[in-house]
Structures are given as structure tokens and as C-alpha cells.
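Hi there,

I know you've been waiting on this one. I reran it after we fixed the sequence typo, so this is the corrected version. Both the input and the resulting structure follow.
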Amino acid sequence: MRVNFLKTFMEVISAGSFLEAAKRLRITQATVSNQIAALEEYFGAKLFMRTREGANLTEEGKILEKRARQILDLVNIAKKEIINSLNKLKGVIKIAASTIPGEHILPIIAGKFKKAYPDIEIEIEIGDTGTSVKKLIEGHVDFAAIGSLMGAENLYETKVIAKERLVIITSLNHELSNKKAVDLSEVLNYPFISREQSSGTKNEIDKIFNERNIPLDELKIVLELGSTESVITAVSEGIGVSIISSIAAEKAKAAGLVDIIEIKNARNWRELFLVRLKKMEYLEEQQKFWKSVEKCNLN
């Protein structure tokens, strides 16, 4: 029996199926099946009941789940103690990030940290806010960098890593493009390109509309897209207008893709966060990273 077999076992529990666990671990489904079979042979018991819907723990599997979690925690503690004894920080810090902090803020933070701790690797996975938070809660990453707390503030410790504003973007020849600022209600007159529901930007946009008592169902949404870059492309092609991060908008404007319009009479500033789960025991390299993070001045 190997420790990584227990990690695979825990991943199947989290994923709910052998196939989804294989995708997350980036191995074949056959490898997952073989590792679980090896555990079942070792313990002499069936650990999962496989159904059309996925994989459910047996009573024996539930016993192993409790102990496997303890074993893996002890392995991490041993790793921490050994690293400390060598007096040289190594290891990997994993961060799930939504588009704006992941592409524009974390590279600055990670670059500064690597100068101080060159032997520590930093892996950044880019997705949306909802996906990043899910990976953090399920234990796949150490931290998440997100543009909205999505109403789950009680789960995290937080650090503000940047502050930015949300702005309207249009194509270069749009009738609004010659204006410096417009009221938020003006957006209702044009086709609108939205981010997906799990996006932190979408969550913050909804807040702005709600604070102004402008019904969201009056938006003429023509597209719902999964990244800021895809929104910029659609806007530049004249499909509609949108509201996005000023950080991304400024770069798109410099590239000659869109025009930027400020939003009048709205609280359009937002904070970007690095978050970690409360009441967790962190390795020293993770603690060093957390303590090193400072707010980036972007405006």
C-alpha cells in the first residue's frame, strides 16, 4: 500500500466517481481503479459501491476515510518537520485564482516571493471565482485569489491584494465610445455581454445594479462568456457592451480593442482577495507566503 493510493481514495470520495477523480488527478480511470483495488485487497474489504451515478462509500470505506485523513495529515506534519530540520524551505504552493487576480496580480506577488524563497514552487490554476473557491474548500489548493467573497466570508481568512474599479467597455465605433462617463442605466439600452454566474466580476456587477435599484432582468444579455478575454473579444467585434475589470480594460484599450467609459454615481470600486480556510494547519512555506503578501498598488 502506498500513500498516494490513499490520496486517490480521498479524491474519489471528493469527486464522487472514479472518472472525475482520474480527471482531477490527471491519470487514467484504469489507474484509479487499480489503486482502489490494491487498497481493497490490502484491507480485505470492499471500499466503494459503484453505481450509474458514481461511487458510494461502503461502511468499511467510511472507516478508512476517517483514518486515511489522519494518515495524510500526519504525513504532511512529518514533511513540515523534516523541512524545518533541514532549515531550507522547499515545497509547492498551490493557488486557484479567478482571471483578474490570477493573470494580473499573482504574478507580481509570486515574483517577489520567489526572490526570497527560490526553492519554493508556486502553481497557479486560472478559473472563475466559483471554481477557485470550490478547489480551496475541497483541499486541492492552499489558497484562492478571487474578485468577490461570494457571501462566504465566514469560511476564510482574507487579505486584500489589490483594489480596482469596474468600467463599461464598448467597441471603438460604438455610439457611447466618445463619452467619458455615463449613468449605469444607459447600459440597459444596448445588447450586454455577461460573465457566467460563478464569476466574481458578475457577482460584483449584480451588486452595483442592486444598489442602484436597477432590475437585472432589464439587461439585454446576448452572450454569457467564461472569461474576461472572451468578453473583450466579443465587445471589440461590436456584439454588445459589457462591464469588466479596469485592469483588463486598460490593457485592451492600449491594444486598440475597446474604449472605456466610467460609470457615474455608482460604487464601482472592488477589492481583490487572497483567501485561505480558517482553522487549518499550514506548512511553513505556506505560512511564509501568506505573511509575505501585501496589497499591490495598481491605480
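Quick highlight: The chain has three domains: 3-85, 87-162+271-292, 164-269.

Best,
R. S.
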